[in-house]
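G., the chain you wanted modeled:
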Amino acid sequence: MPDSIDNLLPLSSLTVDNATAALAQGVAALSAGQTVFDLRNVQSVDSSAVSVLLAWQRAARAAGVVLELRNLPAKLRSLTKLYGVCALVSPSLAECADVSSHPAAEAATTHHHHHHH
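Predicted structure as tokens:
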């Protein structure tokens, strides 16, 4: 193993066709000590990509490590936003931090004003 672990995941797609394989690959990388996944090679994604990312994060938490996902393709980023899991998938991404415009988040924060007796 070279000193600098290559963070690039050799995945060109994250779709329903290879979700299981991609998941296994990510988990294997995690157990090998890789905690940054670079997804710049990923060309095609569908909604199952989101489940794969979440499963990777669960595996990372189970292993007690913090997994950082880098260079998500734009389509994948918009999918994670669509499902409201952007911050879960990649807390370090700047575009995930902006939850103030998310209606669900606002609804959740306004609920603690009910003093009905």
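The domain at 13-113 is CATH 3.30.750.24 (Transcription Regulator spoIIAA).

Shout if anything looks off.
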